Amino acid sequence: MDKSHLPALIAGAALALLAGCASGPRGGTGIGRDGPDANPPAGLSQVPDAEPRIEAIRSSGGTSKPYVVLGRPYVPITDDRPWRETGLASWYGRKFHSQSTASGEPYDMYAMTAAHKTLPLPSYVRVRNPANGREAIVRVNDRGPFHDDRIIDLSYTAALKLDLLRGVAPVEIERITNEDIRAGSWRRGDAGATALAFAAPAAPTPRASSAPASDSVAVPAALTSPVVAMPSAEVRELAALPPLTPEAAPPAPEAPTASVKLPASGFWVQLGAFSQRDGVDRFQQQVARSLPALAPALNVFAERGTYRLQAGPYASRELARDMAEQARNGLQLAPMIVERR
Fold first, then answer.
1. Rounded CA gap, 110 and 96, in Å?
2. Coil, helix or strand for 74?
3. Are strands 150-155 and 84-92 parallel, antiparallel or unpaired?
4. Fold of 232-340
5. What are the start and end residues of each CATH 3.30.70.1070 domain in the chain?
6. What DSSP string runs through 171-198?
């Protein structure tokens, strides 16, 4: 499997990539390649999910410090907030097996673990494959993937259980907080019955992307560099959203539906991504009711089986950043800036 092998500058030092994700079977071996063992252990599909347990969240220092990778700043979460997100998942395998993760623990490709850019280390996440409804719970103990459109790097076994070994593919993730663990509310009688609150029902046809592999980097605490502030324009993750309840909302004119067209060049503010069109349409209506001034700028674009709600275009990053800040304050989410050329 091909693996992009790029240098990363962290705290002014050139480092080799310490962790990565597979992009799909390509064959061959050698430097820059990753994949499964030639003879993986039997019974991996029966490996139990990670069992959530309360683990202390560091409020400062160590893996909680802001850091920079490939010129981009990241600010880890240091509280017990809920977190829901949709995007692409990748996985990493034998090339990094037994190497140290960002948390200092050795990477075990046969355990139910994952890497995330900003969630606390450690923490627990429920991952759902919308293409087949499969779910798995993983323990996040590493940083990555450092690629714009990837939100999580899975261990080999986690990807196997979700049927994601063929390549990069859409997923939905939901953090299991310490409060969820105390209350026992994270347990479900039917592991595949419920989607994330803001996501549409499982789509039958999403396909794995053939995009190149992501660039995950295990970031030891001693090698991270501090960041004074995290510009909203660079935030790539979607924060927790309230459940969509259009039936309880007061009657209001429907938000304009985007026509089928290619997005214009410029800067766009992405507010959410969904696996089905009806989910993004409901969210568009909710945004239009909450921020009426933003309604005329809303557009829905279908890209690689994902429906993205974006506002724009804006002539400059500064204008887009201002709108992103309004959306952040008005909708209690973390938008991201997308530049289209």
1. 12
2. strand
3. parallel
4. Alpha-Beta Plaits (3.30.70)
5. 232-340
6. EEEEEE-HHHHHHTTT--SSTTS---TT
Divide the 341 residues of the chain into consecutive groups of 10 and give the mean pLDDT of each group.
34 33 31 69 93 88 88 90 92 90 93 96 95 94 89 96 91 94 79 34 34 41 32 33 37 43 81 82 87 87 83 88 82 79 80
- The residues with which 169 forms a beta bridge, in sequence order, are 89
Q: CATH 2.40.40.10 region(s) of the chain?
A: 8-223
Token representation of residue 286: 């909710």
What whole-number distance in Å separates Cα of residue 121 and Cα of residue 51?
15
Torsion angles phi and psi, residue 48, rounded to 5: -70, 155
Nearest one of 82, 159, 174, 79 to 113, comparing CA atoms: 159
The H-assigned helical ranges of the chain are: 156-162, 178-183, 277-290, 317-331
Q: For 8-223, CATH number?
A: 2.40.40.10
Amino acid (one-letter) located at 79? D
Write out the E strands in the chain. Answer: 8-10, 13-15, 67-69, 72-74, 84-92, 113-115, 123-128, 135-142, 150-155, 169-176, 266-274, 298-303, 306-314, 336-340
Helix (H, G, I), strand (E, B) or coil at 168: strand
Contact 169, 238 (CB under 8 A): no
Q: Which amino acid is at 294?
A: L
The Cα 247–Cα 60 span in angstroms is 42
Residue-level length of the chain: 341
Helix (H) or strand (E) holding 313: strand 306-314
Whole-angstrom Cα Rg for the chain: 20
- Residue 234 is which amino acid? E
Question: 99 near 92, Cβ under 8 Å?
Answer: no
How is residue 218 written in tokens?
Answer: 């295990």
Whether the CB-CB separation of 127 and 64 falls below 8 Å is answered with: no
Rounded Cα distance, 291 and 250, in Å = 15
